């Protein structure tokens, strides 16, 4: 892994290496899992889809309590346990023979994955000074994309082999990857609770923070872009355009390479709330452009013209993705109380399992079935959510619930600095 993608030596680099390990396993698993469960285990596509939907619904409920556990205990220990549990859940897929056991394994897998994502964000907030969090988060995203690409290549090799043993080997690889991540996380310094535990509603304090809830809801709308490259665009290219079907894989490669190379550069511009809002507005405008180009690709008469328009759309879409990430990360940290980063990040991250649950069916119906007009509707909804984030930030600034009265802990020696 080139040094330009990794954070400087220290806790942030350890976090990056842990995410690299599990993202390699994830990339291989994502490429092969559907065929493993249908061809090797013998489940129907409907059973697989239902199991994953229920699993991510469980994941949606786990983020906040998982993050709360990281706030009130040593976050490193919680992260290690969840990474190891995710590895065991992946290994459990090897034992699946019936829909009910698949459902149980999927719930465990999605719940542990979602909880781990929240706790990793809490660790980042504890171990990295406020001014560097967004850039470090961007570096982590670049590392994740590199790992997914490498894992996808390994998964592709297993698909080429077309044997049950090759599929099972990928599951073993993914389980080992998460156990390796757990071992790497053990190298982090201990992170004692940011404050003494409180009783009662403290566990659900984020649900009473209405400005943050609005921010999370708007971000969840924007996160619906997640199935675009993996599902919607391949179907769109094959059914609605004159471009060759293999171009869908090229669009995914463009996206992965761009995030690896440019995410940190985009995030460096975002150091405060004003920069975050500008970044989100740029994301909204870029997504409108991308959706307009994708819609236009259906009218192109030849494969070269359609392909060129799709590539331009993919370039605009990946910029929107990077600008959205940078702005959302900054606000998710800035608007969270210093002693509840885990709980708040768990809630903010709920957009990911929600998008995995609802996005495929919703966007397939809206865009693939709806045609060019569906792209325009999605682009407008994304941009409206991006521009509306400023309402949540102004509300947070004027709300008594907000954390301006708190101090942000740097995680080193107990030093603190006022919220910027």
Please describe what this structure looks like.
The chain has 420 residues and is mainly alpha-helical. The protein folds into two domains: 1-193, Growth Hormone, Chain: A (Up-down Bundle), CATH 1.20.1250; 203-420, Growth Hormone, Chain: A (Up-down Bundle), CATH 1.20.1250.20. Helices cover 76% and strands 1% of the residues. It is built from 15 helices and two strands. It has helices at residues 11-40, 45-72, 75-92, 99-127, 133-161, 164-185, 205-208, 210-222, 227-240, 247-267, 273-297, 303-334, 341-348, 351-369, 372-398, and strands at 407-409, 416-418. It has a two-stranded antiparallel ribbon. Helix 5 (133-161) crosses helix 12 (303-334). The longest helix is centred in the last third of the chain and has 32 residues, at 303-334. Residues 400-420 have low confidence and may be disordered.
Q: How do the strands and helices of this protein lay out in sequence?
A:
Blueprint lengths: L10 H30 L4 H28 L2 H18 L6 H29 L5 H29 L2 H22 L19 H4 L1 H13 L4 H14 L6 H21 L5 H25 L5 H32 L6 H8 L2 H19 L2 H27 L8 E3 L6 E3 L2
Antiparallel strand pairs: 1-2
Helix pairs in contact: 1-5, 1-6, 2-3, 2-4, 2-13, 2-14, 3-4, 3-6, 4-13, 5-6, 5-10, 5-12, 8-14, 8-15, 9-10, 9-14, 10-12, 11-12, 11-15, 14-15
């Amino acid at each position: 892994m080139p040094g330009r993608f990794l954070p400087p030596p220290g806790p942030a680099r350890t976090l990056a290496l842990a995410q690299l390990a599990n993202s390699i396993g994830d990339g291989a698993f994502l490429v092969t899992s559907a065929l493993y469960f249908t061809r090797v285990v013998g489940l129907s596509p409907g059973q697989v889809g239902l199991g994953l939907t229920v699993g991510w619904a469980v994941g949606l409920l786990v983020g906040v309590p998982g993050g709360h556990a990281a706030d009130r205990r040593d976050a490193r220990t919680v992260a290690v346990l969840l990474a190891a549990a995710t590895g065991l859940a992946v290994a459990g897929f090897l034992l699946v023979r019936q829909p009910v056991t698949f459902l149980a394994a999927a719930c465990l897998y999605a719940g542990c994955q979602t909880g781990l994502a929240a706790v990793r964000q809490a660790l980042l907030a504890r171990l990295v000074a406020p001014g560097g969090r967004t850039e470090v988060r961007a570096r982590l995203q670049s590392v994740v994309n590199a790992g997914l690409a490498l894992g996808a290549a390994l998964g592709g090799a297993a698909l080429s082999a077309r044997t049950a043993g090759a599929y099972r080997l990928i599951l073993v690889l993914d389980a080992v990857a998460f156990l390796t991540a757990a071992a790497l996380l053990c190298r982090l310094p201990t992170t004692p609770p940011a404050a003494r535990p409180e009783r009662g509603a403290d566990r659900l304090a984020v649900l009473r923070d209405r400005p943050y809830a609005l921010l999370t809801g708007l971000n969840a709308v924007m996160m619906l872009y997640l199935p675009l490259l993996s599902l919607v665009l391949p179907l769109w290219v094959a059914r609605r355009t004159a471009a060759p079907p293999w171009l869908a894989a090229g669009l995914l490669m463009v996206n992965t390479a761009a995030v690896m190379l440019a995410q940190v550069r985009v995030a460096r511009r975002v150091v405060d709330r004003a920069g975050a809002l500008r970044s989100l507005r740029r994301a909204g405008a870029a997504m409108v452009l991308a959706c307009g180009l994708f819609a236009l690709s259906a009218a192109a008469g030849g494969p070269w013209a359609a392909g060129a328009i799709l590539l331009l759309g993919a370039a605009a879409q990946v910029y929107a993705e990077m600008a959205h990430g940078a702005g959302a990360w900054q606000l998710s940290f800035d608007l969270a109380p210093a002693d509840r980063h885990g709980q708040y990040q768990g809630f903010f991250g709920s957009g990911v399992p929600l998008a995995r649950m609802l996005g495929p069916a919703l966007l397939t119906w809206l865009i693939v079935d709806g045609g060019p007009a569906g792209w325009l509707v999605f682009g407008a909804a994304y941009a409206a959510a991006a521009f509306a984030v400023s309402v949540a930030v102004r509300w947070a600034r004027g709300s008594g619930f907000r954390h301006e009265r708190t101090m942000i802990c740097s995680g080193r020696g107990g030093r603190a600095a006022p919220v910027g």
